[in-house]
Amino acid sequence: VSASTQTETATPDGRSPRPPFWRDVRIIRIALQVGFLLAVAALLFWLFDNLTVNLRVLGIRRDFAFLGQPTGVPILGSDFRAQSPIRDALLVGFFNILRVAVPGILTALVIGTLVGVGRLSTNWLVRRAAGIYVEVLRNVPPLVMLIFFYIAVLQQLPAQADSITAGPFALLNVRGVYLPALRLDGPAPAFLGVLAVALAAAIVLGMLRTRRFDATGQPHRRVPLGVGLFLAIALLGWLFLGRPLGLELPVVEGRGVAGGYRMIPEQASVFIALVLYTSSFIAEIVRGSIQAVARGQTEASDALGLSGLQRLRFVVLPQALRIATPAGGNEFLNFTKNVSLGVFVAYPELLRIGRQAVGNGFPAPQLLFIVSAGYLTLSLAISLVTNLVNRRLQLAER
Amino acid sequence: MATTQPVTDDEQLTATPPDDATTGMAWVRKNLFPDVWNSLLTLTLGPLLAWGVFALGRFLFVTGRWEIVTVNLTTFMVGRYPRDQLFRLWIAVAILALVIGLAIGVATSVARAAAASAGRDHDRPWHEPVRRFGPPVMLLVVMAVFVQTATPLLLLAAVLALGAVAYRLGRLVPLRRRGQVNLVLVIGVISAQVAITGFGGVPRSAWGGLLLTFYFTIGALLFAFPLGVVVALGRRSTLPVVRGTCMVYIEFFRGMPLVVLLFTGWLVLPFFLPPQFPTPNIVTRAMIILVLFTSAYVAEIVRGGLQGLPRGQREAAQALGLSPWKQTRLIILPQALRSVIPALVGQAISLYKDTTLVLAVGLLELLQVARIIPGQEAFRGQGLFAETLVFVSLIYWVGSYWMSRESQRLEAKLGVGER
Questions:
Q1: Which of A32, A141, A152 sits opposite B396 (nearest CB)?
Q2: Paired residues of A179 in beta bridges
Q3: Which of A50, A141, A152 lies closest to B353 in CB terms?
Q4: Does A25 lie at the interface with B, CB-CB under 8 angstroms?
Q5: Residues of A with CB below 8 A from B241's CB?
Q6: What's the CA gap between A43 and B164, in Å, rounded?
Q7: What's the DSSP call for residue B63?
Q8: Torsion sign across C-alpha atoms B56, B60, B62, B65
Q9: CB contact (8 A) between residue A123 and residue B38
Q10: How distant, in Å, are the alpha carbons of A5, A10, A132, B243 from that of A1?
Q11: Which candidate from A122, A129, A144 shows the least CB-CB separation from B356?
Q12: Mapping DSSP to helix (H, G, I), strand (E, B) and coil, where does residue B281 land?
């Protein structure tokens, strides 16, 4: 009897009956998603429809044909001509982001690492100075620093003829910051060829030494040997080819400055402010990651008899680097995005160029779209690289 | 000593280490000149630092022409806000002091109760309050130097006293009523705004200075927090479409520089609204952008908290037979949010610093005041930018530094990562 009551609730093939469709989880899930998708699509359609209606009412064209029209204004600090099309101006703006971001990130990385290690120094003065550096700089908005350096420092500098000199290498004046430039002349392609050969030779030597190390266990010393070989070949090539590469120092000539690499004040202020701001965050990341390496690791390397430098090189730093990668990548990303603050001091990065074009009567929606796309591309590229590096460095999941 | 006396175990245990760190010379040798390398560092860095301190001190106390700050202190605080309506601001500040004091009081009771139940005792050294409130007190002293009449100081003291009374009241609120404090806080913030704008008051477009900075920071946090929590839950949803949409939302707003978004909000946002729709004013537009931007970061932080929860919590809630909504509201969210409070404070700090960017849309906030005041008739051509910008930096620095220190304290107190 009991067996018959059990089978009553089951279907003939032995499975439990399907619930009514409005209680079926699978159907509810699909319905919810379709509903959500429809709502999002409706919102986007509504926004886009408003845009087209507004543009038609105002008589603004909806295509990107304006990109071919002449820009109408030159660009600060470049030989860009006013007749060139907007497209080229936007490209210049895009590369101006990189022109600050790439050297800036490298500089911030070096300073940040030094300050971060300095915060852990046994020297009281170094520790305190590094602490003040971090606490002061990371708590002041970068835009305040940027405007401070632009208005209150760089614009108060003397005229070109009375430039402030920092040794023979750098000049400071109201027209910009002048640094030594690398000058390639003479048989430059031949010299680049020599450098390539030197690099290849150094890599081959490194590989040979590694193989020998694997086979015999003798110290490989691949880094000093490789660098030495590269420098030796490069030096020989440099001497034989008649010194094709040299430093060009900026010098005051009459009322102007000749030679060197010139950073216009706009670029210099963005560079300085963002390097100071970002390096304070990088310092904290460096300090935190070194401290996060378990104490036992240090003690274990002492027990193995490693020297202080060996301990850092082989035990602490590799692990600290792994911890620091995600946060560090985030700071590189922030630096790049913050270059857009340059718009406030008229540094001609992408946003500034776009903003200027809007002011000259070109359509705002398309221009802001291009500017956004430019910055978004850089952001996504950096986070992609960070994720790849991070994946390579992480330990396999435990 | 001629004879070597055997040392008993007791003596070894009670012997104190040589006290070399307390005597001056020994301290200097140990911390500044332990070896050649460190001595070199000390000798190069020391003079540089001394010169820096000297130059800063000379600027602050000798060469700096601070009368520009004295004359314009009110402008720094409120911008172009009409001076005959200042009483409304004081009313708003008093309301805020009341509700914030109350909220801190309740939060303290909750924290004490939690600490007591966890068996942690609360003996604080006497100098802790001095250390904790050092930065804001310093700012108040600086303000007092620049104030021309005693009225603002007296009013400020009254407001602080009101806050202290509210804190005491907050400590008396029974723990089971603590949920209503959030509501009181929201009502307080809204009525503070109404006290300024309502009843023939001052529209927000006429606000400026520090007032606008605070308005954007508090307002954007208030709206961005719930939005961010919703997006974070969506990001963790099991429905692929919802998850994907929230991911795109987060990645878009985190990938864009805030300035670009603000310009978009200023120049392009009106295009996306129907023609017959009134264009929202510039403060609202900036606020919308700040809220969208911040909510994406809040969502990412909250997602971290959600991910950090052990699976067992959700499973235990399911085993209790709670509905999915109740599982999230009663079990998951309270724990996830508690663990990310320090990160949220960090986000509040960056928002506070990021409000400087609203000068992109032509608002007269604190930094913009510092930028245009040296162009006033009395000061034109004298280049007093360093004075105004340093003053403004100090205001930002104190707020940001203080919040970050408080969040470290909170982190230690909540025992995040201690479990």
A1: A141
A2: A261
A3: A141
A4: no
A5: 33, 36-37
A6: 47
A7: I
A8: positive
A9: yes
A10: 7, 15, 85, 50
A11: A144
A12: coil
SS3 state of residue A181 = strand
Residues 202-261 of A with CB under 8 A from B: none
Distance in Å, alpha carbon of A88 to nearest chain B alpha carbon:
20
Q: Do A123 and B41 touch (CB under 8 A)?
A: yes
Question: Per the structure block, which two tokens stand in for A69?
Answer: 């029209």
Check CB contact of A355 with chain B, cutoff 8 Å. Answer: yes
Contact present, B397 and A140 (Cβ < 8 Å): yes
Question: What are the distances in angstroms from CA A201 to CA A204, A206, A231, A291?
Answer: 5, 9, 11, 39
Alpha carbon B216 to its chain centroid, in Å, reads 12
Local confidence pLDDT in tens for the 398 residues of chain A: 444 444 445 455 656 677 777 777 788 888 888 898 999 999 999 988 888 888 888 877 777 878 778 877 777 777 777 778 888 889 989 999 999 999 999 999 999 999 998 888 888 888 889 999 999 999 999 999 999 999 888 888 888 777 787 777 778 888 888 888 877 776 677 778 888 888 999 889 888 888 888 888 777 788 888 899 889 988 888 888 777 777 777 877 777 777 778 888 899 999 999 999 999 999 999 988 888 887 788 888 889 988 777 888 888 888 888 888 888 888 999 999 999 999 999 899 999 999 888 888 888 888 999 999 999 999 999 989 988 888 887 765 54
List of chain A residues whose C-beta atoms are within 8 Å of the C-beta of residue B242: 32-33, 36
Cβ–Cβ gap A135/B239 under 8 Å:
no
Of the residues B248, B264, B318, B356, the best mutation for testing chain A's interface (the one with the most A CB atoms within 10 Å of its CB) is B356
Helix (H/G/I), strand (E/B), else coil: A397: coil
Structure tokens at A258: 């000749």
> In terms of pTM, does the model score above 0.80?
yes
Beta strands at A181-184 and A176-179: parallel, antiparallel or unpaired: unpaired
Residue count of chain B, please give it.
419
Which is it for strands A245-248 and A251-253: parallel, antiparallel or unpaired? unpaired
d(CA B139, CA B148): 16
Size of interface A-B (CB pairs under 8 A): 154
Q: How far apart are CA A261 and CA A181, in angstroms?
A: 5
Out of A122, A144, A341, closest to residue B389 by CB = A144
Subunit contact A125:B46, Cβ cutoff 8 A: yes
Contact A208, A200 (CB under 8 A): no
For residues A215 and A221, the answer to whether their CB atoms sit within 8 Å is no
- Prediction ipTM score: 0.84
**B235-272 burial: b if 16+ Cβ within 10 Å, else e:** bbbeeebbeebbeebbbbbbbbbbbbbbbbbbbbbbbb
